[in-house]
Amino acid sequence: MQFDTSYLNKTPNKTARNTTSFKPEFVILHETAGYGSLEWNLRPEVRSSYNYLIARDGKTYHYVNEKSYIAWHAGVRSWARGYSGGEINVYAIGVEVEGPNDGTPITTAQTKALVELIRYFRDTYAIPINRDYFFAHSTVAPGYKDDPRGYSVEYTLKLLDESSLPSTGPRPNTLGAQLRNEVYKLAKGEYRPDWMFHQYAFKNKLGSPIRVGMDFSVKGVRYTGEVYGRDVIISPYNQWDIVLRANDLTDQDVYNALMQFTYGALGVDYRPDQAFYQFISRPPRKLVGVPLGNSSRLQAGDGAAYAAQLFSLDALYTPIAATGTTNWSVVKQLSAIVAAQNASAADAALRETINRAMYSRINTSFDAKLPFIKKALEANLGAPLSSQRRWSYRNNEYLYVVYAGDTLFALANKPAEVRLLSEQAD
Ligand SMILES: [Zn+2]
């Protein structure tokens, strides 16, 4: 970790240590309650200091070297640990985070720097990251000190515990990263280029996010997961380098539990006894994506009836005989009709009906000649997840439609020049 040392040990408000092997016992976290503290605490009459200060921009100053000096940042009337007066400073490191201490949240850059600094203390001094070692000033001096008010010590420690959760790093101001953010926003998330799920999804072309931030437990293991148009990905808690894809899960119990959770999150009935579910869930699994709704009765243009279920990348169906009976052992995929060289008239009518149903979900009429729809069919992007939306970026107006398999976009004044978001780097 990099520290700015331009103020290091310049304040007179410190006491030399009489040991060369100082090991801090805990860390006290403060907020400055004002600005200009780096200069202010150089004045002898102020009679206070601290070991580190994190400025609004996240720059971290090493102010008093804790190995050589005791900084004067906290005094206590009494504390459960038995310290009194300024004695607490002998054993503690004092960290100031710059802020008004009126409840205004500290900046994202400060949160990030604070997390890094706590990690540095752990690595340098073997201070365990938990609430027995990190204290708010208000905790050790209750009743007369109320800092910090701009951040929660407990929450900050939680961020460290889950250190690979979406980071607070900047998102590049590129077309790719910004449009991806629009797509994540539709899934009620936010695009984090340094979050491993988002990197994984981009690298492996998993298509568009449908649901982000699912937490669930299976067989005593806690997971977090995200649903994409082409697959669901999960990671065991705090083992963020492991990403598992639903379609690759070898443990059928884990797969079923994940699907039960995913169906629930998508508002679809989970019916493991149903023919459609059994068709897709048995290995080798069918790459149909995730369900967009329950199965329902469809009537094709030629009058034939089907039981059908729409998935993000495909649709499953089975004919309903004129007598009203259904042979559930016969499950077919829309993609087979699409792939067929010469579809029968009945299949063509069904394909048209399913396409209409997919587009009516987003209140759009299906017209295979329109540039976006044409491109989506050519590129096998599956179902549209959004209607056509407008977006402006660097003084240009764009149109885009989120599909399960990718997002299509074009300049508003050149709507026929359709591009794939997956081909745009950050
Ligand atoms: Zn304080």
Automatic annotation (TrEMBL):
Name of protein: N-acetylmuramoyl-L-alanine amidase
Catalytic activity entry: Hydrolyzes the link between N-acetylmuramoyl residues and L-amino acid residues in certain cell-wall glycopeptides
Lineage of the species this protein comes from: Bacteria, Bacillati, Chloroflexota, Chloroflexia, Herpetosiphonales
A single GO molecular function term of this UniProt record: N-acetylmuramoyl-L-alanine amidase activity
The keyword Cell cycle is assigned to this record: no
N-acetylmuramoyl-L-alanine amidase domain: residues covered: 14-149
GO biological process: cell wall organization; peptidoglycan catabolic process; peptidoglycan turnover
Documented EC number(s): 3.5.1.28
Stored InterPro entries: Amidase/PGRP_sf, Amidase_domain, NAMLAA_amidase_2
SUPFAM superfamilies: N-acetylmuramoyl-L-alanine amidase-like
Organism this protein belongs to: Herpetosiphon aurantiacus (strain ATCC 23779 / DSM 785 / 114-95)
Keyword annotations: Cell wall biogenesis/degradation, Hydrolase
Chaperone in keyword set: no
Pfam families: Amidase_2 (PF01510)
EC class: hydrolase
Source taxon at top rank: Bacteria
Record-linked CDD domains: PGRP
